[in-house]
Design brief:
about 230 residues, Nucleoside Triphosphate Pyrophosphohydrolase, alpha/beta, 9 strands
C-alpha cells in the first residue's frame, strides 16, 4: 500500500511500547487545489526534528473523560478504527474512539488555536512507529474540514512556522529537498493529492488499514529520499 523502503536490522532487546497519539489533517479548498495546514518543527525536538507535520500529539489521561459525543458518531468512528489497537483494547471500542477523538480536537486547539467540531473530523489512517525506534507512537490520523472562514494560527513552541500550504506544493518541496516529511505525512499527502476538493476526500470510500512500518524503514526512507535528489 505504501511501498516503504525496507532494511533488515536487528530488533532492540526491549521494544518500547507505542504511545497513543492523534493527528489532524486540516484541509481547505483553494484555487490551485487542496491545501493542508502544516507545522515546520524546530530542529531541537527529540522526535521528528525539523520535519513538516500535521497538528497533533499524545493522548493524555484527561482525554478519557469529560466529553459527550453522539453515540452514532462514536459507533461510526469505532467502526472506522475496527482494525486498529483501540478497537480490541478491553473491548471498549466506542470509549476509546471518543478518547482519541478528544485528543485530536484538543491538539488542534492547543497547537493551532482552532476549535473544531467532532462532526468535522473523519478517521483516515493509523500508523505505528517501527519497533526499532526509541520513541514510538500508535497514531490516529483524521481528515478535517473546518469552516471556510476558519483561521488556524501558529501558536506552538514545537514549530517555528505553521501555515496553509498546497498539498502538491508540499510534495514538490519534499522532492526538491527543501523540506522533510515523516513517512506517514508523505504517504498520506500523496494519497490526498489524488482528490480535487475537500468534499471529494470527505465522501470517498476509504478504509483504515493500520500500518506498522518495518524495522529500519525510517532510516531507509530518509536515505532513499536523500539519494534520489
Amino acid at each position: 500500500m505504501t511501498d516503504l523502503p525496507q532494511q533488515d536490522l536487528p530488533l532492540p532487546k526491549e521494544v518500547p511500547q507505542p504511545r497513543l497519539a492523534a493527528s489532524v489533517i486540516l484541509l481547505r479548498d483553494a484555487p490551485g487545489g487542496l491545501e493542508a495546514f502544516v507545522q515546520h518543527r524546530v530542529s531541537t525536538m527529540d522526535f521528528a526534528a525539523g520535519m513538516v507535520v500535521f497538528p497533533g500529539g499524545r493522548v493524555d489521561a484527561a482525554d478519557e473523560s469529560g466529553w459527550d459525543y453522539a453515540e452514532e458518531l462514536l459507533q461510526r468512528h469505532a467502526t472506522d478504527w475496527q482494525h486498529s489497537s483501540i478497537s480490541t483494547a478491553r473491548g471498549e471500542a466506542t470509549k476509546n474512539a471518543g478518547t482519541v477523538l478528544t485528543a485530536a480536537i484538543r491538539e488542534v486547539k492547543e497547537e493551532a488555536g482552532l476549535r473544531i467540531d467532532a462532526s468535522d473530523l473523519r478517521p483516515w489512517a493509523n500508523w505505528i512507529t517501527p519497533t526499532d525506534m526509541p520513541k514510538r507512537f500508535d497514531t490516529y490520523f483524521y481528515v478535517a474540514k473546518p469552516s471556510p472562514d476558519a483561521e488556524p494560527l501558529h501558536q506552538t513552541t514545537e514549530a517555528w512556522q505553521s501555515l496553509w500550504m498546497p498539498v502538491a506544493g508540499i510534495l514538490a518541496a519534499e522532492a526538491a529537498g527543501t523540506l522533510q516529511l515523516m513517512p506517514p505525512t508523505y504517504y498520506l499527502l500523496k494519497e490526498i493529492a489524488g482528490f480535487a476538493t475537500v468534499d471529494a476526500v470527505w465522501s470517498a470510500e476509504h478504509y483504515v488499514v493500520p500500518v506498522l512500518a518495518p524495522v529500519g524503514s525510517m532510516a531507509a526512507f530518509l536515505k532513499e529520499r536523500e539519494t534520489r535528489r
